[in-house]
Amino acid sequence: MPTDVAAVTGATGFLGGHLCERLLEEGWDVRGLSRPTSDRNGLEGVDWYVGDVFEDETLRALVDGVDAVFHLAGVGLWSAGPETVERVNRDGTATLLSACRDSDVGRLVFTSTAGTRRTTKRFADETDFAEPIGAYQSSKAAAERLVDRYAEDDGDAVTVHPTSIFGPGDDSFTPQLLAMGLEPTMPAYLPGGLSVVGVSDVVDGLLSAYAAGTRGDHYILGGENLTYDRAAERIADHAGGSPARVPVPSTAIHAAGPVAEVVDAVADRRVFPFDRRMARLATSELFYSSQKAHEELGYEYEPLEAHLPETVAWYRSTNG
Ligand SMILES: NC(=O)c1ccc[n+]([C@@H]2O[C@H](COP(=O)([O-])OP(=O)(O)OC[C@H]3O[C@@H](n4cnc5c(N)ncnc54)[C@H](OP(=O)(O)O)[C@@H]3O)[C@@H](O)[C@H]2O)c1
User: Fold this and answer.
1) pTM above the 0.85 mark?
2) Minimal-distance CA residue to ligand 1 atom 38
3) What parts of the chain have a pLDDT lower than 70?
4) Nearest protein Cα to ligand 1, atom 22
């Protein structure tokens, strides 16, 4: 039987690295998109295509004849300004879709974010479209519409919406959450809460969406819904750390929103990656249901504790 071939954008990132490892373990041929400056360490066996999400020719070569395209490349407001975020997430997706349209491609699995869904009920699901807050959410929502149109026309595509991904190799959310449970120097936890999903569960979800998702459909890939104080407590219990005991007052975070707006206006550019609406969002309980992915894809997630041994070991090895 011929080997399945996958093209992965964002292959050098946190989620992309884990996905590539799994695909290689399962016997796929893996092509990865990498910028010239990307760190490709530790990903032996990937066939690299060097370029970015705006380079039409590189993308055409990357996707030509593959069974699966996993589109993970993206940027958030912590690492880039709003214009770059819009360009990479929305326009990069448009360029990739155009390459897929003109090539012989199997199914595309697009990784959006759960952040394009929100609810005033307890748990948001795929039908709870949110008014985007900030360039990250608006660019992901715009990219989703492009992918939906591609699936309606001539292409085959499915969109997944991971919640907050937790696991080794992440340099943003994971160390912040772990610090709340482990570090005596980090006495404060955030108000509100979120859905924490292990990176291996998201990789399972990506592969199930490829194999069993309905063309044009969307699936939330979430994990446990936890308040920050509960998450900090459980991390501390598991790893013998010292949980954050003092809540950061919501008012302090809400006050930081307008301050950030003023500084940005004075500096005439984005200095802080949030404004007052994002500040309010950061203190909410952003809880999600993965019921649809469970029923249609057989998606399962494990509790936080299942992901802690490997992730805490990684955190301790990188934070001395
Ligand atoms: N982490 C989460 O909690 C989370 C939750 C929901 C959704 N997501 C989505 O999942 C995807 C992967 O997230 P992640 O956490 O793995 O992010 P990450 O570690 O920051 O990786 C992002 C990847 O995108 C690549 N990239 C950025 N700009 C590019 C460009 N112009 N051309 C080509 N590649 C570019 C990066 O390449 P370099 O290595 O060169 O920087 C990297 O490989 C993203 O689309 C993100 O929005 C993440």
Assistant:
1) yes
2) 38
3) 1, 186-187, 244, 249, 252-276, 320
4) 13
Each residue's pLDDT tens digit, 230-286: 999 999 999 887 776 777 767 766 666 566 665 555 555 555 556 667 777 777 889
The residues spanned by each domain of the chain are 5-165+196-222+289-302
Do 60 and 103 meet the contact criterion of CB atoms below 8 Å apart?
yes
- At residue 155, the pLDDT reads 96
Mutation test residue for ligand 1: of 159, 165, 194, the one with most atoms within 8 Å of CB: 165
For residue 320, the model assigns a pLDDT of: 67
User: Relative to the CA of 165, which ligand 1 atom is closest?
Assistant: 3
Q: Does ligand 1 lie within 6 Å of residue 15's CB atom?
A: yes
Q: Is the CB of 116 under 6 A from ligand 1?
A: no
Domain 5-165+196-222+289-302 is classified in which CATH homologous superfamily?
A: NAD(P)-binding Rossmann-like Domain (3.40.50.720)
Would you state the pLDDT for residue 247? 73
Q: How far is the CA of 10 from the centre of ligand 1 (A)?
A: 5
Residue 39 CA: which ligand 1 atom is closest? 39
CA of residue 183 to ligand 1 center, whole Å: 27
